[in-house]
């Protein structure tokens, strides 16, 4: 069976591949219709379980839009009136249709049900592995967006344009999910996260040209992450009187190296009795507070990853507010991180460089000074070779210009994130100095 035959199990399915903002029509969503017919006035379900209504349908004709009443499968349409969709969303007729389609398809392929994704299994004829991979691709309802590797602050020219800037950033985020916008409660700044220097320049340029706001961007900072080296456990106890009400919490948490589950409970005999008395709602509050503390590490303020918070014991005074418990859990995690310390993880980029054969030695020599790992050098054509490299982002600032200089403009390059890597102590010191503005 092919991908088209798989799609018959859904009544309607479409993929949002682009969003543009029109001055007269507002946000316009470009949808590729995979299955079924999209009609004006249709009610659709988005990836985020929100309901959308297609107010108007347009057929794209170069830079002109012609209003139409319906779009058949296999065609592209422009939808007006969708408020919650973002680039990469999957649209279906109903939420139950998507789940039902997955179950029926798994039965056809004789694969076990496993929630949102299907695990790959081997078979004698080798078809099952390919089928399982295809099912995973079809039902990948959320776009896979890599983590931001750069961040910087963004400020409006005046307080009167603050709301306009925030509205512009929301619209840009709908168009480009790789753009991250956060509010830093410590510095009181709006922080942008993106995929590179050019990405940030384009965002600034679009805000200026399309929204007429002369925003200022702060210096670009590399988005380092942090992680713990060894498991660490500590307790935190706090008592205060707020508005005549006594608030008290005593909590014991442990941080572990773990890649999957971010929060767990200690099921040992000595703590099971205590944790069994904690209500599920309160466990949710504790979890939220503890995990929020992992958003900002003690060294450079990077997100703490590959770390699990384990709750061992907690005693909550009568009448203690949920916000007080949440704050106590967060402070306990911060105390452990500060005491035990963390290690920095730096973003690594995968580069593919195509250059003439006579320029390869000069390129490799320059990359070796940038702490790069040369994975492969192979022929690309009669005159050119392809170099596959992994290199730290910190060493690649302005590298495209350097590459053009080395090769006299004869080389081309592509670069994309490929994860994070541990740093040695010397590189860590330089990274911290750079983040603090001392380098």
TrEMBL record:
<dbReference type="InterPro" id="IPR009022">
    <property type="entry name" value="EFG_III"/>
</dbReference>
<protein>
    <submittedName>
        <fullName>Ribosome-releasing factor 2, mitochondrial</fullName>
    </submittedName>
</protein>
<keyword id="KW-0648">Protein biosynthesis</keyword>
<keyword id="KW-0496">Mitochondrion</keyword>
<dbReference type="GO" id="GO:0005525">
    <property type="term" value="F:GTP binding"/>
</dbReference>
<dbReference type="InterPro" id="IPR005517">
    <property type="entry name" value="Transl_elong_EFG/EF2_IV"/>
</dbReference>
<dbReference type="GO" id="GO:0032790">
    <property type="term" value="P:ribosome disassembly"/>
</dbReference>
<keyword id="KW-0342">GTP-binding</keyword>
<keyword id="KW-0809">Transit peptide</keyword>
<dbReference type="InterPro" id="IPR009000">
    <property type="entry name" value="Transl_B-barrel_sf"/>
</dbReference>
<dbReference type="Pfam" id="PF00679">
    <property type="entry name" value="EFG_C"/>
</dbReference>
<dbReference type="Pfam" id="PF14492">
    <property type="entry name" value="EFG_III"/>
</dbReference>
<keyword id="KW-0547">Nucleotide-binding</keyword>
<feature type="domain" description="Translation elongation factor EFG/EF2">
    <location>
        <begin position="221"/>
        <end position="341"/>
    </location>
</feature>
<dbReference type="GO" id="GO:0005739">
    <property type="term" value="C:mitochondrion"/>
</dbReference>
<dbReference type="Pfam" id="PF22042">
    <property type="entry name" value="EF-G_D2"/>
</dbReference>
<dbReference type="InterPro" id="IPR035649">
    <property type="entry name" value="EFG_V"/>
</dbReference>
<dbReference type="InterPro" id="IPR020568">
    <property type="entry name" value="Ribosomal_Su5_D2-typ_SF"/>
</dbReference>
<feature type="domain" description="Elongation factor EFG">
    <location>
        <begin position="343"/>
        <end position="429"/>
    </location>
</feature>
<dbReference type="GO" id="GO:0032543">
    <property type="term" value="P:mitochondrial translation"/>
</dbReference>
<dbReference type="GO" id="GO:0003924">
    <property type="term" value="F:GTPase activity"/>
</dbReference>
<dbReference type="InterPro" id="IPR000640">
    <property type="entry name" value="EFG_V-like"/>
</dbReference>
<dbReference type="InterPro" id="IPR053905">
    <property type="entry name" value="EF-G-like_DII"/>
</dbReference>
<dbReference type="InterPro" id="IPR041095">
    <property type="entry name" value="EFG_II"/>
</dbReference>
<dbReference type="InterPro" id="IPR035647">
    <property type="entry name" value="EFG_III/V"/>
</dbReference>
<dbReference type="InterPro" id="IPR014721">
    <property type="entry name" value="Ribsml_uS5_D2-typ_fold_subgr"/>
</dbReference>
């Amino acid at each position: 069976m092919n991908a088209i035959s798989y799609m018959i199990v859904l009544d309607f399915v479409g993929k949002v591949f682009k969003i543009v903002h029109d001055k007269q029509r507002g946000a316009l969503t470009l949808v590729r219709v995979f299955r079924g017919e999209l009609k004006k006035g249709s009610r659709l379900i988005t990836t985020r379980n929100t309901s959308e209504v297609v107010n108007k349908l347009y057929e794209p004709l170069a830079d002109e839009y012609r209003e139409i009443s319906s779009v058949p499968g296999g065609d592209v349409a422009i939808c007006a009136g969708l408020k919650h969709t973002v680039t990469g969303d999957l649209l279906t007729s109903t939420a139950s249709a998507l789940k039902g389609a997955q179950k029926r398809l798994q039965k056809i392929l004789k694969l076990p049900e496993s929630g949102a994704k299907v695990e790959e299994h081997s078979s004698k004829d080798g078809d099952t592995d390919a089928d399982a991979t295809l099912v995973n691709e079809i039902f990948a309802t959320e776009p896979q967006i890599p983590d931001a590797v750069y961040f910087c602050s963004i400020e409006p020219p005046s307080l009167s344009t603050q709301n306009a800037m925030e509205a512009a950033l929301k619209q840009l985020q709908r168009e480009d999910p790789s753009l991250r916008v956060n509010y830093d409660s410590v510095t009181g700044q709006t922080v942008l996260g993106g995929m590179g220097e050019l990405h940030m320049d384009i965002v600034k340029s679009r805000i200026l040209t399309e929204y007429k706001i002369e925003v200022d961007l702060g210096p670009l900072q590399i988005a380092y992450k942090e992680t713990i080296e060894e498991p660490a456990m500590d307790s935190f106890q706090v008592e205060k009187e707020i508005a005549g009400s006594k608030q008290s919490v005593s909590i014991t948490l442990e941080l572990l190296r773990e890649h999957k589950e971010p929060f767990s409970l200690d099921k040992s005999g000595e703590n099971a009795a205590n944790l069994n008395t904690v209500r599920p709602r309160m466990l949710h509050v504790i979890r939220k507070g503890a995990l929020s503390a992992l958003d900002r590490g003690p060294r450079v303020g990077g997100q703490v990853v590959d770390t699990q918070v384990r709750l061992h014991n907690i005693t909550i005074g009568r009448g203690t507010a949920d916000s007080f418990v949440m704050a106590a859990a967060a402070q306990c995690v911060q105390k452990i991180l500060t005491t035990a310390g963390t290690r920095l993880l730096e973003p690594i980029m995968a580069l593919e460089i195509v250059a003439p054969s006579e320029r390869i030695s000069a390129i490799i020599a320059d990359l070796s000074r940038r702490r790069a790992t040369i994975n492969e050098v192979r022929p690309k054509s009669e005159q050119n070779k392809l170099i596959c490299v992994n290199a730290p982002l910190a060493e690649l600032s302005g590298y495209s210009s350097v590459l053009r200089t080395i090769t006299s403009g004869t080389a081309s390059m592509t670069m994309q994130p490929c994860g994070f890597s541990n740093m040695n102590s010397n590189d860590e010191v330089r990274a911290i100095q750079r983040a603090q503005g001392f380098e």
